[in-house]
Amino acid sequence: MPHYDYMAEFAGLATIDFPSKESSPATPSASEDERLAAAKADPGAFAWRLRLQPFGDEEHFRDYLERFVAEVDTTAVTALIIGNCWDPGPANDDVDGVRDLLAARAAAFPALTALFFGEVTREETEISWIAQTDVSPLVTAFPGLTEFGVRGANRMNIAGRDYRLAWEVSHHQALSRLTFQTHQLDQAVVHGVLGTELPALESLELYLGKRTTPEDLAPLLSGSAFPVLKHLGLRNAKNTDTLVTALADAAVTSRLNTLDLSLGTLTDKGARVLLDTPAFRDLDRLDLHHHYMSEDMAEQVRAHFTEAGVDLDTDDRQEVEEEEWDEEDDEEEWEYEDPEYYPAITE
């Protein structure tokens, strides 16, 4: 799962943490000192992670960010990861404050091309408990961004305050890779993304959940959005079979090099569409891991796409938990219900 561990690499660069007040060890090891010193000597060679600790006498994000700018030549930084910086305690900023402080310091990062906002792991909290916000000000503050990713809840309420992931960017000239990692993506965000003019976008990944339909994806499927798109991820979907059927007839499919339908609910029904649609054989890679195909169908899919030269992932097969009749139940009242298929991330 992408949210189980911290990223070892981002934007093709090894990651390094900029120590906060609470995360700095009293006596850092020689290797830690040497690695941090090497990163400070060549800041553009690493993807820098900013992350605060939710305990102790942790510093405020404003002070942490200013210290980062003072100690590291951020004019050379090309990749930045914002981790758990809005959950260290009641005295710190909320997600809006972190967003606004970072956007206000955009001039200190003139070379920034990759930004991930919300790298919080499952050990810290579930995705559905990562407060998020309108990320549009971040994206527009950095016109040189070629990659942007965000992780968090579609919406939540904490202490009577509503938080909502939103996207209201009208145009971005440089963005070529865009990723939304959620347990359930609001249709408004999907519509907003597909309505954005992104002439350079080559990679789009949406973790959909259960609400998005092919009708919501119409501009994408028709090929009218994102003319140079090469990689599409419709991941963590409750209705993967329906999406596969829509993709089979979609103009966008023939343009793709890679298609990622992982973390979803693909069954034999959707797999049959994959087998019967020639356009899927032209892919370079097809990712189906975390699926509900039967063993026989999974083997057919592997043989079919291997013969076509497609790099295929069918790992993490799920077993359907079907409701069983209890002898104590009234046989006349008990009715069989279709099995439930769950995407990998539901909270």
Task: Describe, in short, the structure shown.
The chain is an alpha/beta fold. The protein has a single domain, classed as Leucine-rich repeat, LRR (right-handed beta-alpha superhelix) (Alpha-Beta Horseshoe).
How does this model look, in words?
It is built from 10 helices and 14 strands. A hairpin with a 2-residue loop joins β7 and β8 (161-164). The chain has 347 residues and is an alpha/beta fold. The chain has a single domain (9-313), classed as Leucine-rich repeat, LRR (right-handed beta-alpha superhelix), CATH 3.80.10.10. The chain is globular and about 60 Å long. It has helices at residues 30-41, 61-71, 95-104, 136-141, 187-194, 218-221, 240-248, 268-276, 278-281, 295-307; strands at residues 9-10, 13-18, 46-50, 79-82, 114-117, 147-151, 155-158, 161-164, 177-181, 203-209, 231-237, 258-260, 285-287, 311-313. Strands 1-2-3-4-5-6-9-10-11-12-13-14 form a 12-stranded mixed sheet, covered by helices on one side. Strands 7-8 form a two-stranded antiparallel ribbon.
